[in-house]
Amino acid sequence: MTLTFIKTFKNIYLSYFKLKIFSANRFKNVLFLLIFSFLSSCSQKIVGPTLNTVIPEYLHSNEFEAQNGFILKDNDQAFASKIDIIQKAEKELRLIYYIFDLDESTAYMTNEILKKIEKDKDFSVKLLTDYQWNYKNLDFFRWLEKQQPHGIQQIEIRFYNRPSISVIKFAEFMTLGCANAKQNVENNGLDCTEEKLNYLNKYNQLSLAQAEEMMSVEAKIFLAGFYAKDPNGILFGTQLGYGRDLQTMTESPNGTPTIDEAQKQTLLKVMKLYWSAKTGSTAEKIQAKIQLSIAGLFFGKELKPFLNGVETILPFSLKNLDGSALMTHPEIAYITDYTHHKFILADTKNVQVGGRNCANAYHMHPNELEKKYIFMDTDVYLNLDQNGGALFKNTFEDLWGFSEMVATTSEIESHAPIGFLYLLNQANTLAETECSEITDPLQKAGCTGQVFSSLLDTGYSELVHSTQNEWGEKFHDYLSKYEKEYLAKIINDKHWTQLSELFDSENGFTQNTTFKNSLHSANVIPLKTQEMYYVENVPYSLSPSEVNQPKQRHFGSLYGEEIEHGKMIHKVWEDAFIAACAKSEKTNEPVEVIIHQGYFAPTESVVHQMNKLMNEKICPNVKLKIYTNSIVTTDLTPINFIGRRQLHALFQENKNFDTPKFEYFEYNKSVLDSIVVNNFPLENGVKGTGSFSLHSKVILFDDDIYIGSSNAEFRSYMMDTNNGVFLKDVPEIVASYKKTLKNLEDNNIVIDAKSSLQFRDLTQLRQQEEKDVAELRQRYAMDDRSFLKSRKAQLEYTITQLYEILDQVSVEMEQSLKRKKLKGKSKLDELLKVF
């Protein structure tokens, strides 16, 4: 069958049905149309339609072709392919990464980019990275933009999820005092909220750029502290406003509301709590936070958003006692949405997507430079045709140009100058001397504020310039370390010293290097029969009917409206689950669905799809297999606790989970550690270097495969951007990937952990959770280390919150499994979207 006729059939099918699965009657109608199309066209041979020929409308424009392709599972080789992409780029590079840390490997990658702009004055680079993760390193990116060998800016960097007007108003709200508030006789308090809201009305008709220009210094400090995850900045910005008004109200009553002595003392106590939360130990900060919530009864509800802003830097504490969100405006409730893309595109030719960020943990084997984790991951390299290159470029530009959520470095300077935090650190240092004779905590805090104000008059440009120079020195230091201490260092059987020996697109792409000590290797993608689709989750609609409409931000997602909410990846997953089930029933042949994911805590939709796959009557020949991290190999332990609660509920609901239809494997830390000791000899063995942890995001649906950045958990569905490729009808690739997983089983790298999900009831499960928590506390010496003793109150609070959330998960799972069909919002997904 010719390509033209295949596309004709697809168009007929889409225009008539727009469905995912054939039914008997509909198949007859489609067959009639197919025959009619044949009789109306030239004499072309027809091959009967199969399930794999059906393409939903939302995927139509996302199909692409590639001339070469590789699935890369070795860290060094995946890094080598990125370097190859940079080196072979002709005119431009486009990158999107959640994490872009300046460390040894990223310094090497950055240096290759700098070589490109130095060689060609017309070469341009666009890097989009995540605001939340990377703000703390803002001056590294500003230093990078200033590398201009030809006197022009060739590197432009933008940050995803800039603060909206609602977030700006929130920052202003928290840093406004109440000096002009009218006394409310009825509740014997101050009508502070009304005054603040009236003041903030000025933002209602402003554009985002205008709102940023209107911001107060205090609000800018507040935002800088928030995005730097610096509680000192958050609290200092708040105190500047409240502190000035407190001084006015207590010392100069003329022209201000009259307050009695009791009210004055209450205000003094509140301000002392603020400063205790700023300067005290972690335990004192937690205690101050609790007392501030009580003080909220005096000030009203305006303190609640402030408390929530502080709590976003701590886990498990984003809810009121009744379970409701402290902040309900969607732009604030979704303030921690990330761009979770992994994407590098050279011109419109070569692209790499998958699970790897830009940091040592993703680009190295175990070594002394990486102390935490070495991630086992999966990327896809593709050499694109012209149409495919245009597709990847256009999707990048859509997100890059979404100014409602994307900020340049200069725009960040206008609303959250990081220089204020440098000034604050300097003020705290000077205050140790200038305010040393003051003993009263409140007066001492006021003295520090005066020091800061005096520094503010001189500006922070010198501090910023100095910090950027420090980043430049770090860059050169890290670059040297990668070249001398990693790249050129022989690690046992590593038979290479240059990355081009691992991946060189001009000389056969993957080289004949044996990865004797690697857990994974490369797979060549057969480019004969497969259909390829680039899929994304983005914050705006991906509906074909809205493709040319102005983009508007959507929050979260609704079941049945995934495409309208930009959740194409999860729509693809849902359709692939359904197709696998339908194929098992139609062909009566075995069908396997395999989830290979580092973080497994499925959304409500995936939970329901899994439950259906295990239904013998609906999907009689399907086997479901899961490979994921164990509690001791993951860097996100709460995900495992949540996932276990969910799987326990599924075991209770569906007895087929306790049959060979379902298999569950977790990575074996003892074997992974032995691989490090035996194959990567280091001065300190496993201790002092990163241990292996799974980071792949792969799902096999029979002969189809998804590889990308989207985790099988709630954030990826409700909050973050993600991307990946969906390859249909690639049995060779699927078979190769299954062989890799089988090797993991045979070598005991993963072990059958199904029994760890089987509990008599929730009481028994809770006992196991408490045992796991105790082991984690012992493993990381949480109760022994001196620097953690002061954090015991925080630790106990966090653990209590974890148990409360786990109990809510069980309740929501039980209620969810009673529903026959999902529609609209999900309470379960809403509950856990912050993880």
UniProtKB/TrEMBL annotation:
Any one GO MF annotation of this record: catalytic activity
SMART domains named in the record: PLDc
InterPro entries for this protein: PLipase_D/transphosphatidylase (IPR001736)
GO biological process, one term: cardiolipin biosynthetic process
PLD phosphodiesterase domain: residues covered: 690-716
UniProt-listed SUPFAM superfamilies: Phospholipase D/nuclease (SSF56024)
PROSITE patterns given in the database record: PLD
Coiled-coil region: none
UniProt protein name: PLD phosphodiesterase domain-containing protein
Annotated organism of origin: Ulvibacter litoralis
UniProt lineage: Bacteria, Pseudomonadati, Bacteroidota, Flavobacteriia, Flavobacteriales
